[in-house]
Protein: DNA-binding transcriptional regulator NtrC
Organism: Vibrio ezurae NBRC 102218
Amino acid sequence: MSKGYVWVVDDDSSIRWVLEKTLSNANIKCETFADAESVLLALEREVPDVIISDIRMPGMDGLDLLKEIQKTDPMLPVIIMTAHSDLDAAVNAYQEGAFEYLPKPFDIDEALALAVRAITHSHDQKQSSHSANTHHADTPEIIGEAPAMQEVFRAIGRLSRSSISVLINGESGTGKELVAHALHKHSPRSKNPFIALNMAAIPKDLIESELFGHEKGAFTGANSVRQGRFEQANGGTLFLDEIGDMPLEIQTRLLRVLADGQFYRVGGHSAIKVDVRIIAATHQNLESLVKDGDFREDLFHRLNVIRVHIPALRERKQDIAKLAQHFLNLAAEELAVEVKTLSKEAVEILTRLSWPGNVRQLENTSRWLTVMASGSEILPSDLPQELVEERSLASSNEGADWQELLEMWARSALASGETEILSHALPEFERILLKVALNHTNGHKQDAAKVLGWGRNTLTRKLKELSMS
């Protein structure tokens, strides 16, 4: 039985021959390709454990091949071979998601050791994925074929070997915690704890104790020593949801932990050292909070090393049908009832809705339909009345001005239980105007700033704030 399956891509037949012989002698199955286009065709029928590809080849080069693989399978390890003169390109490939680069001329033993390491990594990833699929209640699946979600998947892939801090932003209900889970699951810390804490769900006077723990007698009711979330997450990942709601005094303490990796329990006198990766998330515009003095600028820059934007459901409408059916399947399994399917007409209606509550609202709707729809196929008449009314309002107001449409969105958002809708709407309002202005001016930022009534520096800052740069 072979130890792994590796594809080698190089227009140089001697390189292909040497690597194939070396890998085969090590009981590793190997297939070779002379060009990248053949690899993409072969990937439609099967996927290897590892791909080793040269950078410079006729036709599609290795970097373009890497980008295409990242779109379909960001977890597939790709080793880039490069001559010393192509070192900059190799570093760029590494930053774009390559597993490693192999400089030419290479030592055969080093090349084999690298291939074995990549195979081990690939097997670990597959085992982790299998475990996640077996226990989907613990780590639910992220579904998304829309371009905006593909960007999210690529980001997860690029960060798979990193422990760097990540800031996730997106509206409520978009699945920020799922993305945080995925970042942890595909990181070097995956075998260690993933601990989540929602800042908005904890009374402010308890946040300090929740994060840092307390000593016995630290305050009334502290009858024993208690570990905080930082200690619980040691070696793993601490996910701080709704970080924008963290009180300023706690922000100061968090900043110190990020700076030197140690803290004191409430009422404690001994420093506790931890190794924790921080993933933070928010639906708010942190730049605005910094400007208003409600969020520390130095903490913002500490957290905002890498930012991942999760699109709203209305920005990925091609995913709605697949997501809805996925949630119908889960609900049927949980409730031990027959799985219901969506009629074409019902899908059409669901796709046209604005979904202010995003994926969470769609999931709740799917659970409701599993219980309440009378037949095995869900028809438009089975849909909740408020959804049908929203669709009717949308149809009857196609000619309405934008103020009326905005009012309709706000009413719908409040009816679905959303809060802080102004902080949701303002960034989206600016994002849409920026996108239209840039399209109108063919991407010329100076002209786009002019039509928006901004200076060039303001436009550049806004593009960065809204993750559009």
